[in-house]
Automatic annotation (TrEMBL):
This is Copper amine oxidase-like N-terminal domain-containing protein. Residues 1-27 form the signal peptide. The keyword Signal applies. InterPro entries: Cu_amine_oxidase-like_N, Mao_N_sf. It holds the Pfam family Cu_amine_oxidN1. It comes from the Bacteria. Residues 426-519 form the Copper amine oxidase-like N-terminal domain. Keywords: Signal.
Amino acid sequence: MSFWNKKGLMVLCLVFLVLAGCQPVNGFDPLKLFEKEAGVTSYEGSVSLAFDFDVEEAVVTEDSDGLDSYTDYQRNRLEEYRMLNGLQLKLSELKVNTLVGQVSGKGTLAKAQWSIPFAFSIDGERTLVQVEGAKHPIQVKNSAFTNKLPYLFQNVYWMAGTMSASTENGEKERELAKKSLGLLVRNLPNADSLKVEANKEVTVHGAQVTGTQAAIDVTGDQLPGLMRKYARSMTFDDKGLRELADGIYGYLKDLELGDGAYQEWLGDKELSVEGIYGLEKFALSYLSVWGLDDELDTEAMKDTRVHLDLLADEQQIVRQANLAIQLKGEHSLRKGVTSGSVRFAMERWNVNGGVQPNVVAGQDAVDLSSLKTSEALMDQVEPSSALDHFLRDELKLTRKQFSIWLMDPSTLQKMGSRVQEGGYLSNTGYISEGVAYGQVRKITEQLGYKVEWDNDTHTVVVKTGKKEIRFTNESSIAVVDGQEVEMGSPVQFLGGAYFVPARFLVEQLGGEVHWSSKRASELYITKD
């Protein structure tokens, strides 16, 4: 099953356990909450997720000051924050049934003036998404998506997902996950800010639900102290660490294949378990003493806040949850992003009832893995539709951006074939008589167009579908759609590749060149 099922809720419970601790308070038992979640097999619900970030727009829009201070990598990361800013995902209808392995949902993805309706369904390992404005449904293999999640998230989802595994291998994973979670939850310290209110009445999907509401607020400067207590407590949990080491040994032993990759190391169980136990002890003791102070600047994080509240009904099943994360400062975010927030809300009903997800028709679906470029993806979108504008104007899907790194031409000449197509220096250029040069093929292809060699005329031909540009070696004249145009400097053949004045080629292809004297070795190229 994919992460759209109850794994998401179990991860939320894990977050709550980490922040609140596991000891029962006023009848509210977070550990029982997590255990109950493993028994949920179906439900209907709604989910919303919203992002807001304050980004230095001068950097994102290539202001000269921004170019002075930021590398190409940093600008790309800032662009991601700009795209997330104001983005809202709302699932008004979510249906989950883990017994039949199906999930479905309907909702909207919104940013600025655009709101894009969509529907999706998950059946086993296949996800189908139908978006208003798309010519065909999109098919995604779930493993292809989850493999792109950050490594930590992959492991958290694995722990949550294996709590409901039913296959033989899944049962072994489930036992290992239980031992891991047992160690985690037994040692969690309770935060002072945990508040619990019994007999709380809330409205869920138009119906009154009575239960226990728990809320917690934690600031960033409190986290290091909580985590040190947490790591220290686990360090001295000998029984839990030995049980976990034994579980890890059994899991690895079962994974042993015909090639005997683990055979030698796992041949002596007693020795192997003791070794795993020792590694656990070392890692936790390191974190409890040294590992956190170097990573977390408590003064810088004091304005970072996390709020989480959960409403569990009388059966200790989560029916409503809200998570708000307020971030402030470059330490919590990154250079160029001054503050931000992430808000998540969910509620669910008809828990363990007769839920039947709606499957999206996929007869003419297009596999996402076959769409290798943004242009191929945009070919699946109806022109001038809201989706088209959303992808182009808000998510900047068709935007091209890259850097050309300038070096001395004599050095470039010595590099030889390494500057050619496929070479690791193919994004290099040079300055000759005050003019910045870039490689014709590299610039053209990164802007989404094609380059050909005309053997009859011995010219390099750039084609966009609407324009044709011809370059002749050692000539300063380019032929654009049959008309001669003076470039000001000649074409040069260097290191096995053709180079032309970079600004001329980029601007002919509809792009822009950005340069700063403070970063004189870099040309930053963009095209919307």
